[in-house]
Design goal:
Blueprint: H1 21-32, H2 43-56, H3 63-72, H4 77-91, H5 93-109, H6 129-143, H7 148-162, H8 170-183, H9 190-199, H10 204-218, H11 220-236
Helix pairs in contact: 2-3, 2-4, 2-8, 2-10, 3-5, 4-5, 4-8, 6-7, 8-9, 8-10, 9-11, 10-11
Length: about 240
């Protein structure tokens, strides 16, 4: 069930009738009236997806509304905190810094403090050392002579630390990363993360709906560019 915050009078894009009546209609009937109600993604998932795109594209004007929707639909302050840190690596530090100011303002209005930013489960996610060693070895062979520092930081910080941090589930980290990759048109990286998401239990139906949702917030061209990559991954994996 979608609560009233998503459809409230201060919802973004909902007061455009005097500028573009057709845009107003699409917003009310298609975006809010249909897209956010669809299965198999929950409103919580859609909130995470939307915030990931907004942070990755540094579109902070829309962020307060969707951050409140996320918090109203089960995303915790600790998870929001983890999203900002995660996206710093995938969309750039400046975008994360811009998001910090928006998140701080919303947290202040809701009376949230640092004590609520601690994850419930403080244990890092486990890692398959053998799989990670294989991944690192492949990357080192391909790029170690070009940027050894980047390759080492990818292993030591990104995959050994950021991805293991307990603020977010591995499933949510996969969704966030896929959205950032699509929103910033970095599709060369997309197949790896789609496979990773499916290994974490994200279904084909959920990924299909993610692409549909992202089209509204990142643009149709972004979604269709990603569609070809996701299609190849689906076809390469057993049913």
């Amino acid at each position: 069930m979608v609560n009233a915050s998503l459809l409230s009078n201060d919802a973004p894009l909902s007061s455009a009738e005097d500028v573009s009546p057709s845009f107003e209609r699409y917003t009310k009937e298609v975006l809010l009236g249909d897209l956010w109600q669809r299965s198999p993604l929950s409103v919580r998932d859609r909130s995470i997806i939307t915030l990931s795109v907004l942070i990755a594209r540094n579109q902070s004007a829309q962020m307060p509304h969707y951050l409140n929707v996320a918090l109203d639909h089960g995303v915790t302050p600790a998870e929001v905190s983890g999203m900002v840190a995660h996206l710093a690596f995938y969309s750039g530090w400046a975008n994360a810094v811009a998001a910090i100011d928006v998140v701080r303002a919303v947290f202040d209005l809701r009376g949230l403090d640092a004590a609520q930013l601690r994850p419930i489960n403080a244990r890092p996610h486990p890692i398959d050392d053998m799989v990670e060693e294989r991944r690192h070895a492949v990357v080192m062979r391909k790029f170690g002579q070009v940027a050894p520092g980047l390759v080492q930081l990818t292993r030591d910080i990104l995959f050994q630390d950021v991805w293991r941090s307990p603020e977010l589930s591995l499933r949510d980290r996969c969704l966030i990363t896929i959205c950032s990759v699509i929103a910033t048109a970095q599709t060369a990286q997309l197949a790896f993360y789609v496979n990773r998401a499916m290994d974490q239990g994200v279904t084909r139906a959920e990924l299909s709906e993610l692409l549909t949702h992202v089209a509204f917030y990142s643009g149709w061209s972004s979604a269709y560019t990603a569609l070809a990559v996701v299609k190849d991954v689906f076809e390469s994996r057993p049913d």
